[in-house]
Structures are given as structure tokens and as C-alpha cells.
Amino acid sequence: MGMEVGSKKGAIASMNVVPLIDILLVLLIIFMVITPLTPKGLEALVPQPAPNQQNKPDIEAKTIVVQVLDNNQLKINEDNADWDSLGPRLNDIFKLRAEKVAFVKGDDKVVFAQVARAIDVMRNSGIDKVGLITAKLEAGQ
To answer: Which residue, among 68, 78, 79, has the nearest Cα to 111 in the 3D structure?
Structure first.
């Protein structure tokens, strides 16, 4: 408590700031101790494939491309197909796959309605992501 000595008579109003300074110093020390203890992430190394292994055949085996050709012809990875068997064949292909991604490629002379029909059949077969392959994409541009 603060106390003043003097000849004045009556109540003296003065604020005692010592407890306030003590509390602020304790908080300052607590924050100084806590600051270096911020959580850090764990460093993890991702295993890399051996340099002598070829992963390209695996990638090609996973990629499914449905080609819409002229005269209502379809191909699934260079295998001939028709509109009636497209859905069941895609169901069989993607039955055991975790990644359900396929691509559609249409010829220049094909009406877009045929490509949209192929996309619709693919989505109904349970394929999550359907990508479009264009001539520029195929040429690597």
C-alpha cells in the first residue's frame, strides 16, 4: 500500500503501481520462456525409386484414354469398342483402381456431342476425373 507523510489533512488518493509492475514482469518472463518452445514439424525423407527402374510402363498401364473417332467408332487405349460396351468395360477397368482418372480424345471432325456423350458414359461408370486431350497437348506444346 502506498502511504504519504505530510501535513495535509484528509484523504489522499494515490495509485500503488508496484503490484501492476510485478504482474507485468511475470507475464513478460512467461512469454519469453514460451516463445522458443513453438512446435516444429518433423523432417521426413520420402523414399525415392532406384535409378535403374523404369516407371514409364506403370504410368502407361494406369492411363486410360477413350478416343472418339469418325463414324461412331471408339477406342479404349487402342482397343476397339462401341457405345454399348463402353460403360461395362470402363467399370471392369476401374473396379480395382484407387485412382479413377481417364482422358477423352476426340478427332477434329467429330461433333462435340459425341465427346460429351463419351464423358457422360465415363462419369456414369464411376470415373471421378475426366481430362481432355487436345492436339497441342499431344504434341507437347
So the answer is: 68
